[in-house]
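Anyone up for a design puzzle?
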C-alpha cells in the first residue's frame, strides 16, 4: 500500500508504474538458467489481474500460478495499463533505472502469453486534490490452484466496499482474512521479486 499526500495548493496527477520481477525457480536456478525457466511460464490478464502460470516440467512437479493486481483508493483516472514482457518494458540498451516505458512516457504494450523474461508491470493514475491523499494498493501472491478460482476470489476482494474494509486493517490481519484451508492468497505491499 502506497499513500501519497498533497500538501500543496494545486491538484496533482500521478502516474504510478509498478514492476515485480518473477523468480521462476530457486535463486541459483534463476541466476544461472533464467531464460530456460522462463520457457515454462505463460502470462495472461483478466479483469485487471495479471497471472503467470508455471507449467510442471515433470509429472512429479506441481504447477503454480502467481498473480498481481492493484487498485486506487481515491480519485483514480485513465485506463489500467500492463505489460508482462520485461524486455519490452525496459527497452534496448536500458535497465530498470531508466526503462523506456517510464523515461519516454510510453504506454505499456499489454503483452501476454509465453514471454522470454516474464514480469508483472502495472500502471495506474491517481489525482490528488490540495490537502487530500490517495492510496494505491497492491495484492501479490502465489497459488497452486486454478486461475478460475483466483479470479473469483479476487473479484470479491476488489469490490469497492471490500477494498475499504480490508485495507483499513494492518497487513497481518489482512493475511488472516484472506487465507483459507485451500488457499495461500497473500495481501502484502509491493515488493520486487516474487518466487515460485
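Challenge accepted. My sequence:
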Amino acid at each position: 500500500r502506497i499513500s501519497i499526500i498533497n500538501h500543496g495548493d494545486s491538484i496533482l496527477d500521478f502516474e504510478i508504474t509498478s514492476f515485480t520481477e518473477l523468480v521462476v525457480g530457486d535463486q541459483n536456478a534463476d541466476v544461472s538458467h533464467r531464460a530456460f525457466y522462463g520457457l515454462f511460464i505463460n502470462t495472461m490478464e483478466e479483469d485487471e489481474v495479471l497471472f503467470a502460470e508455471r507449467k510442471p516440467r515433470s509429472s512429479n512437479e506441481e504447477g503454480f500460478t502467481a498473480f498481481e493486481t492493484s487498485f486506487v483508493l481515491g480519485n483514480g483516472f485513465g485506463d489500467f495499463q500492463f505489460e508482462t514482457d520485461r524486455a519490452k518494458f525496459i527497452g534496448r540498451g536500458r535497465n530498470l533505472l531508466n526503462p523506456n516505458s517510464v523515461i519516454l512516457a510510453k504506454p505499456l504494450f499489454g503483452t501476454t502469453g509465453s514471454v522470454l523474461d516474464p514480469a508483472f508491470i502495472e500502471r495506474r493514475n491517481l489525482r490528488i486534490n490540495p490537502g487530500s491523499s490517495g492510496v494505491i494498493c497492491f495484492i501479490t501472491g502465489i497459488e497452486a490452484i486454478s486461475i478460475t478460482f483466483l479470479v473469483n476470489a479476487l473479484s470479491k476482494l476488489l469490490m469497492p466496499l471490500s477494498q475499504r474494509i480490508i485495507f483499513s486493517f494492518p497487513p497481518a490481519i489482512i493475511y488472516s482474512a484472506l487465507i483459507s484451508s485451500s488457499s495461500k492468497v497473500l495481501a502484502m505491499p509491493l515488493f520486487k521479486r516474487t518466487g515460485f
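A detail worth pointing out: The mean pLDDT is 75.
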